């Protein structure tokens, strides 16, 4: 069976070495030695000034919305994983959708201003499939209207824009270290920000608001990464170059062998150093997608319809139609992409796709 992705399993001996440290320290969580070391190593690997590790990629979104959303209207994208929208609703804010760009698949920055009202407090946009948003235009709009900017950068581990980590853009950026993501800790995530003020607020927010054992800065939640998860991160991180090289080869195979008269691929924004995190293809229409999907499934190959459905159609959302997002969501699929996918498997996948598209 071939699935859309496959979690990277580092050599078990390497993981055992990290676990041995935990047993020696007799320390399992509450920002132990391994979490602190992982944060330092990530700062260095990603070239960012500040990293706060969290227990998944959703909690930092909720922390960001709690700190910056202020219960207001959040301008957001309908084309993302459900967590982007559900976090807004969960934090008692109101999602206001703005449609996406048909080729970059990120929020269409030219449509943001029309959606701003006196209740708007922030923009929450996703760097879709590791492709960066138009961060410059979004920053200009935020300055003009005094809005905060949050980026769901769950897909963007290692992506840079004009040479800078995408995690550096916006007031707060978040990442997911879920098992299926490019870099993982099993479950995990991180929050990135650029000011001492947000650094302090997000830090206490992720640890119950603690300021020492008996004092509290303010309200908080438990968003801590454990030592066991950090051990996985420290074991996986040295393999990132290997993982990226393998993924780059898979992407190159698809790029040269898919029939691009019949399908189209993601358009990467200029100046973006992309991270090979997903390989979405767009079919002519949903019928073609379903036809190809069935043929692949019959061969035990399981791509995923990322992202489907368009989030403005969720049953707990009130929204106007988002024609571009709904159209894209109906005809896009992410193809298998992971370290260890063989050339033979790729030949098989591509042959089935090219044979079944019309
Ligand atoms: C994976 C993902 C999340 C959620 O991350 P978790 O670590 O699973 O909580 C949020 N947003 C996007 C775009 C994602 O792909």
UniProtKB/TrEMBL annotation:
GO terms for biological process: polysaccharide biosynthetic process. The active site is at 181 (proton acceptor). The keyword Oxidoreductase does not apply. Transmembrane segments: none annotated. Signal peptide: none annotated. SUPFAM superfamilies: PLP-dependent transferases. This is dTDP-4-amino-4,6-dideoxygalactose transaminase. The lineage of its organism: Bacteria, Pseudomonadati, Bacteroidota, Flavobacteriia, Flavobacteriales.
